[in-house]
Amino acid sequence: MTNPQRSSLLAETLIRQFMCRSDNFGVLVHDAASGATLSIDAPEEAPIVAALEAEGWRLTHILTTHHHADHVAANEALKARYGAEILGPEKESAKIPGIDRTVTGGDRLTVGGIAVEVIDTPGHTIGEVSYYLPEARALFAADALFSLGCGRLFEGDAAMMWESLQRLRTLPDDTMLYCGHEYTTTNARFAVDVDPGNTALRNRVEVIERLRIAGKPTLPVSLGEEKDTNPFLRADNADLQAEMKMAGADPVAVFAALREKRNGY
């Protein structure tokens, strides 16, 4: 398990990130005022329980992003252990174990005292949602947006995913991005291949390499950095389009070309 990481603009909101399974991130969000603790997805029971016990927190809610097994595997076990309420996307409710309440894009909720905004981010799956905590300036994008990457298009198409990423791109630059997996090293190699003239990207790759050598996670990262360096957020950028030999092309076509190239990387 990695060392605890907390990031928030408000001292009473604590965020802890740790590893689950082989490369999944587990994340807990705790509201000190109410005592509520949210798990973003539930990849694996034991690491989540260990993180809760280490902090002395009790799980009250699970915010599910999408139905894939490596994001819902521990839903029912954690619900049985803690009585946690499980929220998840309405479009995938039939595939989410133990779901109690559905959410859709545009919903603004208060979950255990924590303000949560739901953003539709289909593409990886048809109904995936991301969760934005405006007061803590934290975005939980699961498998929609990765650090320097994005999710494979298992159920949606390029146009759908590009629209999803544009929604996320509108969030403030100081938003801290949390993702579902530690894929950043491979994503970084790919990003440099397709965007070699991006100085900000090259500088960031050096930081990523140092983090991984030290055994530290590459997340969270500011959304501002992602906007400058993630090729999948830059499909409408003239410099990247030129590197792809697609100058002036429809950004959806550029995004699709990037995603196809990454699939075989």
Notes on the structure:
- With 265 residues, the protein is α/β, with parallel strands linked by helices.
- It has helices spanning 45-55, 69-72, 75-82, 158-169, 184-194, 199-213, 223-229, 238-243, 251-263; strands at 13-20, 24-31, 37-40, 61-63, 85-89, 101-103, 108-111, 114-120, 129-133, 138-142, 145-146, 149-150, 176-179, 221-222.
- 33% of the residues lie in helices and 23% in strands.
- β3, α1 and β4 form a beta-alpha-beta unit.
- α5 (184-194) runs antiparallel to α6 (199-213).
- The relative contact order is 0.12.
How are the secondary structure elements laid out?
Blueprint: E1 13-20, E2 24-31, E3 37-40, H1 45-55, E4 61-63, H2 69-72, H3 75-82, E5 85-89, E6 101-103, E7 108-111, E8 114-120, E9 129-133, E10 138-142, E11 145-146, E12 149-150, H4 158-169, E13 176-179, H5 184-194, H6 199-213, E14 221-222, H7 223-229, H8 238-243, H9 251-263
Parallel strand pairs: 3-4, 4-5, 5-6, 10-13
Antiparallel strand pairs: 1-2, 2-3, 7-8, 8-9, 9-10, 11-12, 13-14
Helix pairs in contact: 5-6
What would you say about this model in short?
With 265 residues, the protein is an alpha/beta fold. The chain is built from nine helices and 14 strands.
